[in-house]
TrEMBL record, chains A, B:
It comes from Thermovenabulum gondwanense. Belongs to the MoeA family. This is Molybdopterin molybdenumtransferase. The lineage of its organism: Bacteria, Bacillati, Bacillota, Clostridia, Thermosediminibacterales. Pathway: Cofactor biosynthesis; molybdopterin biosynthesis. The gene is moeA_1. Residues 179-316 form the MoaB/Mog domain. It is an enzyme of class 2 (transferase). It catalyses: adenylyl-molybdopterin + molybdate = Mo-molybdopterin + AMP + H(+). Its cofactor is Mg(2+).
Length: 640, 640
């Protein structure tokens, strides 16, 4: 084993696309599309494989457009209030809307304008114009007129017009069929018991859903262990029944080589490695004139490379063009460092604060599928840029509707499980409103308000001198802002320790023990400030604490490290300890407030969030969670 | 029978909505939602009925993030090029990406940075930081963390995250089920033979497709004749199996009374008549605590009232909010008259000409389903406005993606079937490009260019003095514009007459015959100018011609009137006569050109349209149509 030069041929994205799609074009993948005839009523969302011309005119006869009487217009000329005209049987005929116009009549008078003297005689006081209230033959569509062109995705109204045009069946493109082959010895199916090293195989389900959204069908093969011949066999089998194959490599480099070699063995390896991040180890090939894609195993890499390569492929196989996502200009709130040579795709949260969109980067690890759940957009950093500075104006591709982002209340600051609960209650009660939170610590929240990057900030900042929470910090750092401070809850901070407290930790003073590994919160977190205050009071130097430098961003992340055994304890809230079934040693109660910028206080969405905050249901849910005192929840603590 | 006071209680739209949704809310329709448990893999597009918290942490163990060797970081401190450190078996362990971190090790060194001396010894020249290249427990999601809230529509990435969170099944809202009851004695099924007075029943298929788009399921009952008791029976049967019922009245007023009375008999009639146009005769009720909607029969009225009432209903039944369509500001190109007292919904074409969006109203008849196919947007005219003036800036709801509209080449002017063929060829070859045409006649096209409402105009305007086509008109009316004139084709104009020419029409001079009814084109149409020129040459006064005042807007519409027997002849092109199997008496060949505003000539979409225009395939299709000479097709005739 030696240093390996992997992906030496990593291509820039556009070049990789050119190579792949150029080869597919030459292979005729996009020109020879399979067609099937289906019933018009079942054609929603399908793509027409031929122009659809009307077979008949609609209406196919001259029809009464209203309920009334049909007449010959010439016979009514001169009618007025003072000189009414009486029409006798034969000169008029009662018609309902849609009835054919009787022969030798050219006009319909609305029922409301007819005075019936008897069944045989009517009086009219207005003349009728020729063809008034008549739907002439072909008013809607004339036989042979184009209803919808080829390559058109059918909508409900198209279905109506095509049926009106006399069609029962039409030709559409067959949905492309893809076989997905999950590979990896470490994979287990959802629901199976998990041992260390096992990975739940869910990429294939994500791919199937993506393919469905793009109009293709997917067959998921049984997962395969890392076995060259078995996987090769599966690919050969897949090629017999599918229009394309997706091999989902696990995360081991060894297997990616399998995919590349299998493609080489069976057909043509076109691309191995693209200089994008995440998603570098993507593999693109052509076997038996069918596209075969090797998609990386990390879920974010997988999702992005599916979007970049499989989406345009699937759309073009159906004669559809690839339309880019909507883009907006936004201010980047934080510095994002990126390496030269790779085009980076950063998932971001987007908020609309006042008139401006602001973006904050999410976790950049390729393994965090939740970053895609939380993301509102994708920010691309070109290969030749080293990153983006805080305050830069950037272009962002939207993953959500702009409206949805505009209806989002952005809370940046300290993390509390109660914010998740609040977000859920808001969505339940007001589906149109979203609450988005980012965890950057209490001080981070204050800075976010100062820079107008959030509507509100969550914080629990104890002022050592006064013993007061939050207000002194707001006075100090947000001097120029008007703020409304609303209480979220009082909560208990304490040491989160392993179930049963095996190391017999009694309080902060034990943190200096040599046998104890601590896990800390990031700088600017209220919890860290609390720790530092306690250490100062106890005269313990931070260097004495093993793990003081190891930072996590949320209470739950701290608890997870304790649960996972990489730390013996961490400072956090009771609900986090309870969530992961850990023990808790109370250290200090504290007040957690939301500081809301006054200029957004009257915003409808903010008011609705506050309404939910004050609801009995929300307070009940906090009580169930434990460790919260809701006696002031939703009350205005102060304004500035 | 007397004048009827129908819809005396027609309510303003917002009031009707308040009455309907208020009553549904009180009935608890939106608070008691049915829930079902389904497999996560099958949940794409479904709505969560509960918040989904992670059951496990992901990763659930500390995992190697790369291929390499696991080490204890402390053991590597001090390693450098000059002072490499040698690790022996036991001090390192080879790990693949995703492997669990071995006990007592806290760091992974990438394979590329390791020098293997033997299987038992490695050399490193960089120190490892604690936890480097390690995915800590819960990096993606920590057990108990919220993955997605209640009322959330599930996307592919959500499916991945929920599976990663340890779920196999989740609770989602059941899809609401609606029964659609088509009623009307005049209805026939698609594909059945059509007699005068028959109407193809397609509304139910449009409704089913709309409901599918909104997340509901639909059952279409057999169509019912206009029979009070039968329809009532059907409604009662529907209520047993559905969450809501949609009765689709035909177009006769009599039947709408049936629907209202049936609802009154069975439950509560809430709204009968809404002051909107089209869509006034909508009926809304509540029977057995289930919504029952009486939707008008005209297809456009039906579509709009479904959108206005059924869409928010269906969405709210699934805990979803109704998000309005994207709106843009646009310049209205033509005067639109609207009646006071009704809120009018005008279907419009939208074009982006330069930096500005411009809208043109489409056919306003409630019976023209094709107007919904052609529409790019809906322009609402409030009940208290008499209309909109040409040049007014208006707000328009988009029915299409803005991108799609921006990729549309707008051709306004004379009608020719060849433009339909061209539009189809463009869509076939370049799915991302649309060609939109509006038929307002050659002079209308010139005026549209002058007002910058189109990229190009189709025209065939003969200058009597010079015998030249188009150029003299462009010189006269578009003096200040730079124009590129491109030939579409030469074509034959003539009299379109009934098959076999029963009235023995020989030419224009026969139009003055008393026994002949003519159908004309609208003012400003090149064909009408040609007629006027010929009449002048023959010294025939227009008043002599029966039907001179009856105007149609397209060649096909003229042909349709001849085919339908409401006229004996009309002037038009050979392809229109052939399309409807009519006879044709040649009158004059003429040149049809596209005048393109020079400032848009270089636009990518315009260039692609020209490329298609010049293609062999397009010319071949024109030849098949007949009556076209393509010897100059695609050539630049002149520029100005």
């Amino acid at each position: 084993m030696k240093k390996k030069d992997i992906y030496l041929d990593a291509l820039p994205l556009e070049e990789a696309k050119d190579v792949f799609f150029g080869e597919l074009e030459r292979a005729g993948i996009f020109s020879k599309k399979s067609v099937e005839e289906i019933n018009v009523s079942e054609s929603l969302g399908r793509i027409t494989a031929e122009p659809i011309f009307s077979k008949i005119s609609s209406p196919h006869y001259n029809a009464a457009a209203v309920d009334g009487i049909a007449v010959l217009s010439e016979r009514t000329y001169g009618a007025s209030e003072t000189t009414p005209i009486i029409l006798s049987k034969g000169e008029f005929e009662v018609v309902d809307t849609g009835d054919p116009l009787p022969p030798n009549m050219d006009s319909v008078i609305m029922m409301e304008d007819v005075n019936f003297i008897s069944d045989e005689k009517v009086e009219i006081i207005f003349p009728a114009l020729p063809w008034q209230n008549v739907r002439l033959i072909g008013e809607d569509v004339v036989a042979t007129e184009l209803i919808v062109p080829e390559n058109h995705r059918l909508r409900p109204q198209d279905i109506g017009a095509i049926l009106a045009g006399g069609h029962v069946n039409i030709k559409v493109y067959k949905k492309p069929v893809f076989v997905i082959i999950p590979t990896g010895t470490e994979l287990v199916n959802p629901g199976e018991e998990l041992k260390p090293g096992d990975i739940i195989e869910y990429n294939s389900k994500v791919f199937k859903a993506l393919l469905a959204e793009w109009g293709a069908e997917a067959l998921i093969f049984e997962k395969h262990k890392d076995d060259y011949y078995r996987i090769k066999e599966a690919v050969e089998k897949a090629l017999k029944i599918a229009d394309g194959v997706i091999i989902n490599a696990g995360s081991s480099a060894g297997r990616e080589d399998f995919t590349a070699n299998i493609i080489k063995d069976l057909g043509k390896l076109l691309v191995h490695g693209v200089s994008i991040k995440p998603g570098k180890p993507v593999i693109l090939g052509l076997v038996e004139n069918k596209p075969v894609l090797g998609i990386p195993g990390y879920p974010v890499s997988a999702f992005l490379t599916m979007e970049l390569f499989a989406k345009p492929l699937v759309l073009r196989m159906q004669g559809q063009s690839f339309t880019e996502r909507e883009k907006i200009r936004a201010i980047c709130t934080r510095r994002i460092v990126s390496s030269i040579g790779s085009e980076e795709f950063v998932r971001v949260k987007i908020g609309k604060i006042g008139d401006e969109f602001v973006v904050s980067p999410l976790h950049r690890g390729a393994g965090t599928i939740t970053s895609l759940v939380r993301a509102d957009g994708i920010l691309r950093i070109p290969a030749n840029k080293e990153g983006i500075e805080a305050g830069d104006c950037v272009e962002v591709e939207l993953l959500k509707d702009k409206k949805e982002i505009e209806n989002t209340v952005v809370i940046i600051g300290s993390h509390d499980v109660a914010i998740d609960i609040l977000a859920n209650e808001v969505k339940r009660r007001y589906p149109e409103i979203n609450l988005s939170s980012a965890n950057v610590g209490s001080m981070g929240g204050i800075m976010a308000l100062k820079r107008k990057e959030a509507h509100a900030a969550g914080m629990h900042l104890l002022d050592v001198d006064t013993g007061e929470y939050n207000i002194p910090y707001i006075r100090r750092y947000l001097r120029d802002e008007k703020i409304v401070l609303v209480n979220l809850a009082f909560r208990e901070q304490g040491l989160i320790v392993m179930k049963g407290n095996p190391k017999n930790i009694k309080g902060i003073e034990d943190l200096k023990r040599k046998d104890i590994t601590f896990v800390n919160r990031q700088k600017g977190a209220g919890t860290r400030l609390l720790l530092d205050l306690k250490l100062k009071q106890l005269n313990i130097s931070p260097e004495k604490i093993r793990g003081y430098d190891r930072e996590e961003f949320t209470h739950l992340a701290v608890a997870a490290q304790v649960a996972g055994g990489t730390a013996d304890c961490g400072l956090g809230i009771l609900s986090a300890a309870k969530a992961l079934d850990l023990d808790f040693i109370p250290v200090s109660p504290e007040r957690y407030d939301l500081a809301i910028l006054y200029e957004y206080f009257e915003m409808e969405a903010v008011q609705k969030v506050l309404e939910v905050l004050r609801s009995v249901e929300f307070k009940e849910k906090l009580k169930v969670l434990g460790g919260y005192d809701t006696s002031l929840t939703g009350e205005i603590i102060g304004g500035d």
